[in-house]
Design brief:
This protein is mainly α. The protein is 76% helix and 0% strand. Helix 2 (18-39) runs antiparallel to helix 15, helix 14 (309-339) packs antiparallel against helix 15 (349-382) and helix 16 packs antiparallel against helix 21.
């Protein structure tokens, strides 16, 4: 077996530059979409349901892109065609979104933007597994974290820079997105495309033959299962078909309960999710009962149910980590504008100054994450990856909880430092642990499936946070951040039980 060669610092740098642009677009979305929604008339209680577009698109897009990128080989390579397609679409979406004139248009553009970001982002995760040997993968994902952090810093701070340095107005008539936000999105569209193009031009992918030579053991394993066991296929199909009906029934019962008790419409996201999953299982099971075992849906379903143990364990860590992050992205703007800047009027200078300050806070946590990323690898060597990630998540939880007690805008910068440590670790350590547990020929699809455990907590957050805030906390957004902090602590405990081959 040929050993995969070590790449130089600059080779890893070049293959990671595209993430600078991807995160630039992602950060503009995270820091400004709640502001755009509120400007176009959304109530605080409805923000989470409007945001559900983002995780749902990831749930649908990433495993499909992962599946097909595993099987793609063209003149441009294996993953790079998806980098390019996603960059083109996302850049166009960034140019159009700040011209949304009504709420439904902004929500629709969020679907398009997030889907496009996912098309280019998912293969980047598998790219590290393709290009780097096991011992360099922590460094590779840490490099991605660095570019994610630096891209997000600049993107998050752009509206503030536009107003305070370039004197572009951050206010506009009611229902109109401010010029400072529009220009930030224009710049983001250009940077997104150029950054991804840099990686496409400077990094050459290994051919399928080269990847096979690096993974002889996997080839032998693949040859051993070349003969299809149709009895096993039928057994899996029957199980999925039957279980699908249980999921469908559970979703129908929940939907009736929410309707009968006139509960908030956000909760329907959960019940409809159960129904959709049940339908997909029934279709997958039916295809297998007809011996159609090679369709994308069947492959994705079967791979999901046969995930490596390490991946299952990381799934729970990811769930609570990303629940916290999504709560922060949705509710930081309304929480800070209300509690620190004392305004909920989106046309007022106080509200828009507060929203600009949230951009600064997001820039701080992303910037600190970019710095922390360089220390994750040596810290993981000194302890291990699980302890490093656990400590990082605890600091993130403390950062979110502290926002409740701080009324001074400048002290909030300290809170964001803890969040930055957690963010740097979330973007690198779980992926470094995961790639060592995955077969090389399914790196893309398993990275796509792993995204479920980023997306599902976001869907759950979108479904229940508005309900909890309205029912128990009088729509006070800051309590969503407290729930996020508690969720980070749970993730910090769970990661200690993950099986890591390098621990």
């Amino acid at each position: 077996m040929t050993k995969k060669p070590h790449l130089s610092f600059w080779q890893i740098w070049n293959m990671s530059v595209g993430f600078f642009g991807i995160q630039f677009g992602f950060a503009l979305q995270n820091a400004n979409v709640s502001r755009i929604f509120q400007t176009l008339g959304a109530e605080i209680g409805n923000l989470s349901i409007l945001w559900v577009a983002a995780p749902v698109t990831g749930l649908l897009v990433q495993p499909i892109i992962g599946h097909y990128s595993d099987k793609t080989w063209s003149r441009l390579g294996r993953r790079r065609p998806y980098f390019l397609a996603g960059a083109l679409l996302a850049s166009l979406a960034l140019l159009v979104m700040p011209h949304s004139s009504v709420l439904w248009m902004a929500a629709g553009m969020l679907w398009i933007l997030d889907a496009s970001i996912n098309v280019s982002m998912e293969p980047f995760r598998a790219f590290v597994g393709d290009m780097l040997p096991d011992e360099q993968r922590t460094r590779g994902f840490a490099m991605q974290s660095f570019f994610i952090g630096t891209g997000a810093v600049i993107a998050s701070v752009l509206p503030w820079v536009m107003t305070n340095w370039l004197h572009i107005s951050n206010t506009a008539p009611e229902g109109v997105i401010p010029p400072s936000v529009r220009w930030s999105f224009y710049i983001g569209g250009v940077i997104y495309f150029i950054s991804v193009l840099w990686t496409i031009i400077t990094t050459k992918e290994y051919t399928p033959e080269q990847l096979d030579s690096f993974n002889e053991v996997d080839i032998q394993k693949q040859e051993a299962v070349e003969t299809i066991d149709f009895e096993a296929v039928m057994k899996k199909g029957k199980k999925q078909f039957v279980n699908g009906f249980f999921w469908l029934l559970a979703g129908a019962i929940l939907t009736y309960w929410f309707y009968y008790d006139k509960l908030t419409k956000d909760l329907y996201v959960l019940s409809f999710g159960f129904i959709a999953f049940g339908v997909l299982m029934i279709i997958s099971g039916g295809l297998q009962l007809k011996r159609s075992h090679k369709s994308a849906l069947v492959v994705i379903m079967n791979d999901m149910f046969s995930m490596p143990k390490t991946m299952w364990q990381l799934a729970f860590v990811q769930f609570f980590s990303w629940f916290a992050l999504f709560a922060m992205w949705i509710y930081t703007t309304p929480a800070i504008t209300q509690y620190v800047f004392h305004s909920s009027d989106t046309a007022s200078a106080a509200y828009n100054n507060g929203a600009d300050w949230v951009s600064i806070l997001f820039a701080v946590y992303n910037g600190f994450a970019a710095l922390v990323a360089w220390f994750l690898t040596p810290m993981a060597r000194l302890t291990n990856r699980k302890i490093t990630h656990s400590i990082s998540l605890i600091l993130g939880g403390l950062g979110l909880l502290s926002i409740y007690f701080i009324k001074d805008q400048y002290l909030l910068l300290v809170s964001m430092l803890g969040v930055g440590v957690a963010w740097a670790s979330i973007l690198s350590i779980p992926y470094a642990i995961l790639t060592n547990a995955l077969p090389h020929d399914k790196m893309g699809i398993y990275m796509g499936i792993f995204n479920y455990f980023i997306v599902i907590p976001q869907i759950v957050a979108a479904a229940i946070l508005g309900f909890f805030l309205d029912k128990f906390f009088h729509s006070d957004a800051v309590y969503a951040l407290i729930l996020g902090g508690i969720s980070m602590f749970i993730a910090a405990a769970l990661v200690l039980f993950v099986r890591d081959s390098q621990s």
